[in-house]
Amino acid sequence: MKYSNAIQNLAGEGAFEVLAKCKKMEAEGREIIHLQIGEPDFDTPKNISEAAIKAIKNGETHYSPSGGTIAARKAAPEYMAKTRNIDVGPKHTIIMPGVKPIIYSTMMATINPGDEVVVPNPGYPTYESVTNSIGAKAIPMHLKEEKDFRFDTEELKQLVNKNTKMLVINSPQNPTGGVLTKEDLQVIYELAEEYDFWVLADEIYSRIVYDHPFQSIGSIPGALKRSILIDGMSKTYAMTGWRLGFVVVPEEMAKYLFTFAINNFSCTNTFAQAGIVEGLTGPQDDVDKMMVQFKLRREAIVKGLNEIDGFTCHKPQGAFYVFPNITKTGYKSQELADMILEETGVACLAGTCFGKFGEGYLRFSYANSVENIEKAIKLIKEMLAKTKD
Ligand SMILES: Cc1ncc(COP(=O)(O)O)c(C=O)c1O
């Protein structure tokens, strides 16, 4: 039997492959330190879980409107308006089961086969995968360590042209922890105006920033008409398994996304959406506590990785990932990631899981305790010392 190009052109994801490998090793009795995982290790805040339990008990177990419950579609745009200083409401907003289906559906809503889509590289693999599935052409924007993994705006100017239909930005970024500045966003906006393209801004790590406040392209006057602003509950509120994302788009696109939702999943889990309302409008103490921990872990992992022979590690400005340069070890990224997992039981990802410009790097997630981070670093140090003998 034959399969479509659309499905065959979708790619897998390194993080899920490594997770499957780790589960197998754990079933065989190996102890694994998980530094590959892209999710907070904290529990979902209690008040949020209780709101969803209450919703179940109240019988909120039926279909909701396709775009989301009335309460969630009020809470989400209010949150976006407040955090980005923008004027948006329910008619610009739709709730979906996670940020991933939002990336998929908004790309589907705006890109045709043959169009060019500029994607960050190294970058979250879904952008390129969906671009390929649509039959469009992914143009990699090389994010460089010497530029703090931000966009080199001069280089970006060389990549965009009249065929560019979309530029994807992800700030704070997975996998590098890089963060775009207000000035970067201004240049991006001006290019988008000049060449008339969409900007898909995956802002899922918007609350996980360290030294500078988060900046959204949506805050630039005039930018909303060509921006797709995506955020969600997974990372900020440790709710990856709940599957909740939301997006702010021009009203016309929201209508298309409704039709997508109707044809694809009907609606997002109704009682889970009570968690959006409680999360976004309730107390934020748990988010603050989580950030205190992330800050401590960032210090521990950056310091520790820089002490490993052949590693140099940049201090990330956002998210909970570090992307150390490992070229001086003499190993290729995948080779070293495999060796670390097999010999020490520490799981991390090869930089190449995030595109060709990830060669020479590894990605570690610091969604794990300082104790485990320090243990992992000691094990890697010992392993590399042994291979030298
Ligand atoms: C940049 C980025 N976007 C989207 C997602 C997926 O988010 P969700 O769990 O809401 O589908 C992730 C998860 O790792 C991510 O890192």
Description:
The chain is of the alpha/beta class and 389 residues long. It folds into two domains: 5-44 and 285-383, Aspartate Aminotransferase, domain 1 (Alpha-Beta Complex); 46-281, Aspartate Aminotransferase, domain 2 (3-Layer(aba) Sandwich). Helices cover 42% and strands 13% of the residues. It contains 13 helices and twelve strands. It has helices spanning 5-8, 14-27, 46-57, 70-84, 99-110, 125-134, 153-159, 182-195, 251-264, 273-281, 285-306, 333-344, 370-388; strands at residues 33-34, 93-96, 116-121, 137-142, 164-170, 198-202, 227-232, 245-248, 321-322, 346-347, 349-350, 362-365. It has a seven-stranded mixed β-sheet with strand order 2-8-7-6-5-3-4, sandwiched between helices. Strands 9-12-11 form a three-stranded antiparallel β-sheet. α5 runs parallel beside α6 (125-134) and α11 runs parallel beside α13. The protein is globular, with a radius of gyration of 21 Å. The structure holds pyridoxal-5'-phosphate. Pyridoxal-5'-phosphate binds next to α5.
